[in-house]
Amino acid sequence: MLSPCQRYAVIGGTVLLGVYVLFMDFRMYQALQQWMGPTVNASRSHHSSTQTVTMKWLLMPHSSNYIYHPLAEYFDEKSKFSKRFPFITANMVSFAHVVLFASLLPLIYSGSLAVRRWGSLGLFMANWLDVYDGVVHRSHVDEEKELYYTKPVLDFDVDNLVDICVAILQCVALYLCLLKNPPTRGHSRTHVLPVSRDQQKTLINWELGKPCIAFGGLVGLSGLLLGRYVARFGYIFEYIPKTSIQQKQQLLVMKSTQMWVIIWLRRFVSSFNLIDYAIISIALDKVWAFLQLMLYVGWPLVILLWILTEIQLCQAEKAILGS
């Protein structure tokens, strides 16, 4: 349980973070409204003419855009890490992400909440490495420092492998946390799962494992949908209009309020954000409540947004490509 001081600190930090995110979202919305469409060169480089407004940037979660990426850029700029250690490649940083994540599991399995919170802080550091690998890559290839860029196929394969490993490790972390600290209710601290002491060791493991598996499926589905919409929306976002009607339709659709709402909502259920939510639940000692929320609210919300996004995608493709 959180003490009153800790509770006020969490509430205050949440409010400040919320204000910061809303401010940055407003700046992103302004950047989208100022977007004037792709150029001929953009069709080859898969970037918009502004070189900052890309569909991947718009769809990536708040934590990645507003926290991890600025910190990664600042760290590399000040420390010159990528220049001083040129033998450390982006793929090595990606694998370090997995190794660090796995090495922190014993802390998550601890019976001490303070130790689990230190482990949670380490997990955030591991997720930061998932963004820093891109900074290292851009530094090594001497590309223009765009927010997101086109990686070679091998690097994308490594990223996908790392994302899968991290999602699995996150589910393991949640399970270990519940296994060591079974969910209880009320001041009596009675177990949520009604099993006898003889049955507890066998049944509680499976009962605790099911919501962790469900959460892993939710993370996997969100990751697949993110890749799909980055590619499909990215194509129509960077499509070179052949007529003035297509150009008008492209600007109208991509700058519409409906498109912005879909983009904004999708970022909350991104696989990256879901993993961050899980880490926060470990630090707050609310893992069971979080997993129940994801099971009964997260899944329906992701499916609903899936349907709404597919409708928006079909309408956008018809309006732009069919005009």
Characteristics of this structure?
323 residues; two-stranded antiparallel ribbon; 2 strands; single chain; mainly alpha
Report on the architecture of this protein.
- The protein has one domain.
- It has a two-stranded antiparallel ribbon.
- Helices cover 77% and strands 1% of the residues.
- Strand 1 and strand 2 form a beta hairpin.
- Helix 4 packs across helix 8, helix 8 packs antiparallel against helix 13 and helix 12 runs antiparallel to helix 14.
- With 323 residues, the chain is an all-alpha fold.
- About 6% of the residues have low confidence.
Topology:
Blueprint: H1 4-33, H2 40-45, H3 55-59, H4 62-79, H5 81-84, H6 90-103, H7 105-108, H8 113-141, H9 153-180, E1 184-185, E2 190-191, H10 197-237, H11 244-254, H12 257-268, H13 271-283, H14 287-321
Antiparallel strand pairs: 1-2
Helix pairs in contact: 4-8, 6-8, 6-9, 8-13, 9-10, 9-13, 10-13, 10-14, 11-14, 12-14, 13-14
Overall, the morphology is: globular
| Poorly predicted segments | 40-51, 143-150
Task: Tell me the number of structural domains.
Answer: 1
> Whole-number average pLDDT?
82
For the sheet with most strands, the description reads: 2 strands, antiparallel
Count every beta strand, where a strand is a DSSP E run of 2 or more residues. 2
- Category by helix and strand content: mainly alpha
SS element count, helices: 14
Question: What amount of the residues lies in strands?
Answer: under 5%
Q: For the terminal residues, how far apart are their CA atoms?
A: 58 Å
Helix content: over 70%
Brief rundown of the structure:
This protein has about 325 residues and is mostly helical. The chain contains 14 helices and 2 strands. It has a two-stranded antiparallel ribbon.
